[in-house]
């Protein structure tokens, strides 16, 4: 029997997982139990719609999905604090070396 590489159920994660788990160790540690159990159960019971929905929720929870990854969904269009300070200094004509 060939050794197969099992990939984490979370979209865009791409990490390997244990054969008997649905998630990689990293996602497993970071996701709330409700989603972890939900993914495993939905997959086991072949509820594909639920399974897909939960995987999407997992990706959203971990901020792995789509543009703005790494930021909370509500902060997608916000600039960083450092950038705000930089812009404000420029407006006020302040310079670090002045
Ligand atoms: Zn993962």
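Sequence proposed for the structure above (98 residues):
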């Amino acid at each position: 029997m060939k050794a197969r590489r099992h990939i984490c159920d979370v979209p865009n994660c791409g990490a390997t997982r244990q054969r008997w788990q649905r998630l990689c160790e990293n996602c497993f540690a970071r996701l709330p139990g409700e989603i972890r159990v939900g993914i495993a159960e939905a997959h086991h019971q072949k509820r594909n719609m639920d399974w897909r929905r939960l995987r999407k929720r997992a990706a959203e929870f971990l901020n792995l999905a789509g543009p703005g990854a790494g930021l909370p969904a509500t902060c997608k269009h916000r600039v960083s604090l450092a950038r705000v300070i930089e812009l404000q200094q420029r407006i006020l004509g302040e310079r670090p070396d002045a």
